[in-house]
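User: Structure tokens for this complex, please. No commentary.
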Amino acid sequence: MSATPSETLPLACRRHDHQSCIEGAITTAAKICQAKAVKLTPLRRQVLALVWQSHKPLGAYTLIDMLAAADTRRVAPPTVYRALEFLLEHRLIHRIDSLNAYIGCPDPGHHHHNYFLICLDCGIAAECPTQYLSPAIEAAATAAGFAISSQSVEIVGRCPACRKHADA
Amino acid sequence: MSATPSETLPLACRRHDHQSCIEGAITTAAKICQAKAVKLTPLRRQVLALVWQSHKPLGAYTLIDMLAAADTRRVAPPTVYRALEFLLEHRLIHRIDSLNAYIGCPDPGHHHHNYFLICLDCGIAAECPTQYLSPAIEAAATAAGFAISSQSVEIVGRCPACRKHADA
DNA sequence: TAGACTATGTTATTATATAACGTTTTTTAT
DNA sequence: ATAAAAAACGTTATATAATAACATAGTCTA
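Assistant:
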């Protein structure tokens, strides 16, 4: 296994000040919502913060449980699904189809293509930009006469940290 | 919109003798199972045939309904899920994560990477080989230190036929 | 301040998938 | 041939994910 310079490692896989991930995500989201004149209500903000508790995608019902643990109140599924819908619509989170789960978007507020590297051991999902992938995908779709409207690229494997563990 | 030479169109998007798709899939599957000494039982064969009725991914419960319509007997979910599990395991079908649905594999019996072009109008899903995509994906994963174990590339858009309709 | 709109609450239900256990059929070893 | 084991399928119940439909509360605006 060749060494991977830490600069190329996705943030999710690197040691970092995660508290600032969370705070940054919230303040950026607040700005985006303000600019769009839509409301980041307390519930939506709370769901966003919970999604950002880690770099691991979380299911809707897990979020319900987390809300209950934080709040004593237990919201019903539609409540959390509506918050997720809002966050998806304004591109503050992504949905990981292969996991039925949701994760914070590190480059929020606008449409962009990306792919996810998902670790089957620790559950981390690292979002990466498709600068290299995207042209190939677009060329493939064009060749087949398809007009792309959305795409989902989810790569499951083992992250650097879990590979080290597995080797040991 | 530029004309797309019909040679580059995925089979699913071209006029073709679909009956021979179905028959070919069944006979190939039978050969593969024989070679592997596993059993393509009547139920498994029937589910495979149903999955191949079209080039559109079908949900498990749709398959249950189709079985009931064909047979008068109505199987319970575990029955059809077990058949699907077998067909997945031996790489005779694929699961489309973004649709919770299953589709016949045109290149069955062995592991291979691919991507799907899925039409949001007619539901067709065309499986394409990732000859061009795959190196980019592998390079991306390697750069991030990930060891790939599986991947899912699902591109949603509008197929050539539905684009023509939409233009009209 | 009435009306419209937005957000959330509430109840019920639909859709997808699996656990656990029982029965039947097939295979294998003797 | 036949008992033991394994594989396939049946059956019941339940887990998990998502949404429909309607009620209530809060907010904005004319």
